[in-house]
Structures are given as C-alpha cells and as structure tokens.
Amino acid sequence: MIILGLSGALNHDPSAALLVDGEIVAAVEEERFLRDKHAKNRMPLESARYCLGAAGISPKDVDVVAFPYAPIGLASSARWHYARRHWYAPDRALDALLNGNRRYRRNWRRVEELGDQIGIDWGRTRFEPVEHHLAHASSAYHLSGFTEKTAIMGVDGKGEYATTFFGYGEHGRIYRIKEFYDPDSLSGVYGAITEYLGFEMLDGEYKVMGMAPYGDPDRYDLGRLINRVRDGFEVDVSYVNTVGLRRHKESGVGFYFSDKLIDWLGPRRKGDVADEPYIHYAAAMQQLFENWCLELMETYLGETLRETGRLAFAGGGALNVKLNQRIVALDHVRELFVQPAAGDSGTSLGAATYVAAREGERLSRMTHVFLGPSYDNDECLRVLDARREPLSWQRLDDVPGQAAELLAQGHPLAWFQGRMEFGPRALGARSILGCPSTPGIADRINEQIKFRERWRPFCPSMLDRVAPEIIQTDHPAPFMTITFDVAQAWKSRIPEVVHEDGTARVQIVDAEDNPRYYALLEALEKLTGNAVVLNTSLNRRGEPMVCSPEDALNMFCGSDLQFLVLEDYLVTKVDGEDQ
Ligand SMILES: [Fe+2]
Hints:
Blueprint (H helix, E strand, L loop, with lengths): L1 E5 L8 E6 L2 E7 H5 L10 H11 L8 E4 L9 H9 L4 H9 L3 H17 L7 E4 L2 H10 L8 E6 L6 E9 L2 E9 L4 H11 L8 H7 L14 E4 L2 E4 L11 E4 L2 E6 H7 L12 H31 L1 E5 L6 H9 L5 E4 L8 H12 L18 H10 L4 E5 L3 H10 L4 E4 L13 E5 L6 H10 L8 E5 L3 H5 L11 E3 L2 H4 L11 E3 L1 E3 L5 H14 L3 E6 L11 H9 L5 E4 L2 E5 L6
Parallel strand pairs: 1-4, 4-5, 6-13, 13-14, 16-23, 18-21
Antiparallel strand pairs: 1-2, 2-3, 6-7, 7-8, 9-10, 11-12, 15-24, 16-17, 17-22, 18-22, 19-20, 23-24
Helix pairs in contact: 3-4, 6-12, 7-10, 10-11, 14-18
Bound molecules: fe (ii) ion.
C-alpha cells in the first residue's frame, strides 16, 4: 500500500512522508526547499513532489493521502471545554460550538488543491484525516519498534483541540487514556514564556531550554501559571495562553500572554544577552514544565510504565531534552523512544503510519533520519563549476581521514553527505563539525559562522562503542533527543560539547546507518584519542538546514567557513580571509 502523509495542518512546518508497504521511503520538510524556516502558511507541495519522485511512484498510484487533522464532533467534550474556558473571548467560544470544524474544512480544501497540483486522482486515492494527537502518538509508538505494551505520551501546543495526550499502544493499536484540551496546554505555557523571553514561539523553545541552566529555578515561582484541578491542571489564562483582547500588544503585534504577566514579571526580554532576571524565569519555566509532565505521566501512565518500562513520546514537548533526561532516569522507565521529528513536521509521518498500522501493515523501528534528497558527485561538480566565487576544490581519496585531519588541526568543517536529515537535528548529513577538544571552537562557530547566541550549547556525535563510558548508560540515543550527564573524566576531554550543567545532548552513531560519518569519528579518534565530534546543523541563524549543494555553497560563501566537504570534494576558498 502506498500512503502519502502530509503535514501543515497548523500553518507551520509542512512536510511530506511516503510509506510503501510500511517502509518509510522518503520524508522531507517544505522549509528546506522554500528556504524559509518553518514555511509558515505553506502546504508541502515540493515535499510531496520530492517524495513521489524519489520513490519513482506516480501520483496516480497513491492509495491514501493521510493528513494529521480531523473533524471533531460536537459530542466530544473538546469543543465544550474550549468554549467554557474561552468565556472571556465569546467570539472564539461560540465559534468552537457553532463552527468547530472550520479549520478542518479549510485544511481539506488545501490538501485537495495540493493533490490536484501534483496529479493525485481523487477518484482513486482516499483522503484519510487522522486526529492530530493520534498522528503524533503513532509517529512515536509505531516507529519505536517496541513489541510489548507501550505507554504513549503526547505533549504539544495544540492540534484540533487536544493539547496533551496520554495513552498506550498494544498489538499495533493506540488506546486513549486521557486528553487535555486548549487552552490547557503545557507546551502552550512554555511557548508563551518563550515569547515573553524574546524568542519566537515554535522556534525559540530550545533557546529557553539552553538558557535555563544559567538561572536558578527557585528564585521565582511561576507556579501560579498552572493550577492543579481534580483530574490534572488548568492554565491561568489571565497570564498566559491568552487570546483576543486580553493579549499583550507591542507595536500592533499580539502575544500569547497578557499585560498582567508583564505587570508581574516586568518588561519582555529584548536582545541576545542571557541576563537577570530572565535566566531565572527560563530556569523556573523549564522546571515547571518538567514537573508537570512528570506528574501527569505518573498519574496516567505510571501503571503501564511499571508493567512494561516502555515509553513513546511525541509532540513538540518531546523535543525538551532536559525533560527526557529526567524521564530516562526514572527507575520504571527502561527505554524512551522519541521520534526525531517529534514536532509538527513529524505528523506527516505519523498520519501515514497511523493509517498503515490500521490497515495491518508491518512497521519497524525508525533507526535513522536520512530520508531527504541526495546529490551525487557529478551534480556537486556541476554546481561548483557554475559558481562565480573564487573557490578551489579537489576530489579526496580518503574523505573521512582527510576531514578528520582538518578537524584535528582545529578547523570547523562543513560536512555535506548523502540524504538530508528529516526533522530538526543535523545528524551527520548536513552538519558543521568541530573537534570538541579544540579550545574555543564552539565560540568560534557561534560568532563567525552560525551567528547564534553565544550561551547556546553545541552537541556531540560519538561512536557507539565509547558512548556508554561517556554518558554512563547504555540507553539508545540516535537522534539527539535526550541529554545525559557526562562522566567526570570526559568533561575535560571534550569541554566544547558539555553544557553549563555538565550534560550533553548526544547522538550515538552506528556504522550501519551512516558509515562515512562513523569512519570520520574513527579517524578522529586515531588523531585525538576521542571518538567524539561537535555537530551542529549546516545553516546560519534563522535559516533552514541546507538541502542542496547550491544551498551549501551559498551558506559556505556567506560565512567564515574555510572548508566544505561536499560529497567526495573538499572545497576551499581562494584567498580565504577576503571572501
Ligand atoms: Fe502538533
């Protein structure tokens, strides 16, 4: 069966994923083609075209188009909850009751139009809407490879109405235990405070998490943002998750928090500095989020976890690597699986896997993210030949060995290999690399190449055979979705990838899924004694990750990078400093 999953239901992070008989053959985010981060208000047109093209499948042969947004009936408590909790914005409350599936209908029209554009035959191809949180849940559970009963948690801003999902998976089916509805959203509160701290919601949450270790979580108590009620929590919408007239506004732009929050905490943070009191707010927000997720997880999934020890976690909240560290540390959690595109871009995959599982197809564990476009040496050469900048290039006969030498000499290196990653993390296909024992390499990459906030940490990729010694556990970590405490002895060996609080968000690399990256780490180990490399995504601040050789060269020529390994070619700048 051929299933094309599409996302873009919530006007950000559109993507496409293609399943053929249960196997993921391609998945990609639209932002990479459009060169517009999160590709807001777009549909995954180029992504869908790419997926079909990569698989050599005609649009006429697609059996199902799966979409992670479904109609919600008036009998569901979701719409009534939304209406009751938005009493202060009566137009929204009434809309939820009288016209509660307007967005669904608009989405369906957009999917239909996209299908027409790519040549889907709607007479033959079925359209299958999947509830947003079930798509998230499926993207984690069905791709976890767990065969025993598995607890499932979904923590997300908002789908149709649900924001937070607790359930379990058994024999390939997903069962719901409890859902919370908008505006009661833990990720929503995190997003509102992200905005307050001067970052963009759905983008800057990582930055808040990166800032948190610099602050004292107990200096300010943000507890009043989330109230405890009988079966869980309610967000205090007089502060956050605020809509309509209650929103705080600056220069006509409305925020997801109120003036009351400003009166309480002071003006919204501006600029790039991690300073007081904002670092403490970040720390307090991170702690509040962790504590609530853990408490609800215990309430609704504790029993299942004690039975099986398996947890599949999805939704934007699952990218909170510090929360994940605390989950993994729990005695009754044996293994946590976070699907690497846990945010909304992964719901294309989730909608597709949900339908596939329901149709009885076999799905196996997702072991890598190399599901996007690739370009061979000839294509790279054609692009290089067409460049006007004074570049020189040579074909390397030992790519990993020669790249490792440059790294060991202390150079940052742009690394472009094979199929592009699906999901927000660069995992060795479109990366900027550095040697983690070279003093100051992280600052240099921050200041000269990525132009990011200097307090944000960089992460390590490491060989599977040394990882247990470094992170002191044999828990799997292929996708940089969990932080771990770094062993004392290793902190001084790889200081450039250890965060302020002694943790690192690691990627464990195995030989099977990325042999060339593995070989690079082995070569670096021979030169430096450490099979660890600093790995950050190949892009500049505010840009999506590089997709094509053209993008790579645009980025390379527009930065202070001196070395780019483009498939088998080493590209350097002539008169380096002048470029
Ligand atoms: Fe979502």
